[in-house]
Amino acid sequence: MIKTGVDPAKEEKIAYICRQFRIPGDMILCRWIPNGHINEAYYAAVYDGWEVKQYLVQKINTYVFREPVGMMRNIDLITQHIMDKEKTIEKRRRLHFHHTESGKNYLVLKDGTAVDEDLDPLADGVEYWRLYNFIDRSVSFETSGGNADVLRMSGKAFGRFLQQLQDFDAGQLIESIPHFHDTRKRLDDFFDVVRLDLMDRVKEAEPEIELIRKYRKFGCTLCEQIDQGLLPIRVTHNDTKTNNILFDRNTLDPLVIIDLDTCMPGLACYDFGDTIRFAACTAEEDEKDTGRMKLDLNLFRAYTEGYMGELADVLTDREKESLSLGAAVITLELSSRFLGDYLIGDKYFRIDYPEHNLVRAKAQLALFTDMMKHMDEMKEIVAEVSAAASGCENL
Ligand code: ADP
Ligand code: GN1
Ligand code: MG
Hints:
CATH superfamily of the largest domain: Aminoglycoside phosphotransferase (APH), C-terminal lobe
Order of helices and strands: HEEEHEEEEHHHHHEEEEHHHHH
Largest sheet: 6 strands, antiparallel
Bound molecules: adenosine-5'-diphosphate, 2-acetamido-2-deoxy-1-O-phosphono-alpha-D-glucopyranose, magnesium ion
Radius of gyration: 21 Å
Strand content: 5-15%
Structural class: alpha+beta
């Protein structure tokens, strides 16, 4: 069991951050939230003498997000756009980022003290934090547990999200991580890392490296389709794991999409594919027994149904055809990212034990191999479901 308590110094720091965001009252409880591989998230409960209010306090990982100010502006624009669409005032269905006294939706600390300047995020002692509403009585899924409803509701949630962003002007956004899902560049970078072999770890992963090499050209398929102008660039989420959706704990109603850090121009099929990779799989992302990493076609179908229910009339035919490819390509891409991180000494993804990234890469490659075996079936399911969702069953 992972310990989620925090030490008194950290507790004091989180309480200080709450005060910088002008939260009235005293922090009475603070817990570390271990899910998520990138940012550092805490739950904080604050009592103002009248009621207890709950917040999510998060340190932005500036090794990963080099432009936190631009990224927070992206998030502001996107949450505002969605609010305007939803016209909802229910707090549990939206993310509300609090502001500091100087009106920023982020806080800069230098050696633990708040400063008003946007300091270099990579400089020593500099940290960027944010604070927003904690969505109460919600649950997020680290795995679907084989439950098709989780997948169907997830498809609905991410489909709706994409649909709501259709008229959002992508030109307003910065690329919070340049080339995030540029698989061709990801694979080039991976083979550079293999060549350098800084940690002398290549010898531990030779079959995995060869497998990635074998499919390198396949991994570039979607990039080629972009080059040929075949796939539209939309504003996408780019990190569509089911643990980035908060569901109502009792009804499974998807309440809100979180982790908006990577929202930027991208392809629908990477969004579609990433949920499939994460949740339409018979085991968790970091399963050690690779024999358990299989694609579950029933879960795949359920996700496709939820997704197409929102997007059948939005996506182009070519995009629909690309969805199954997206699942395989993003799984290969992430395999190379996990393995590349292992080879450079685990600088990017949070790990729970020394070989964690290697284990993750092996698991993802096993899933990728299984997806390739089932590519035709995936494509058939997408065609069937999208035809039914557009009301023309006989296609
Ligand atoms: P990361 O980039 O590290 O994945 P996330 O923003 O996804 O960070 O947050 C990590 C986890 O914290 C999520 O998977 C979710 O379980 C929880 N979480 C994040 N935001 C909220 C929120 N507003 N309310 C409740 N839980 C949240
Ligand atoms: C990271 O932040 P989190 O845990 O939701 C990563 C994704 C990977 C994912 C794999 C910004 O997502 O790209 O697919 O881990 N996010 C970033 O679990 O790199
Ligand atoms: Mg997350």
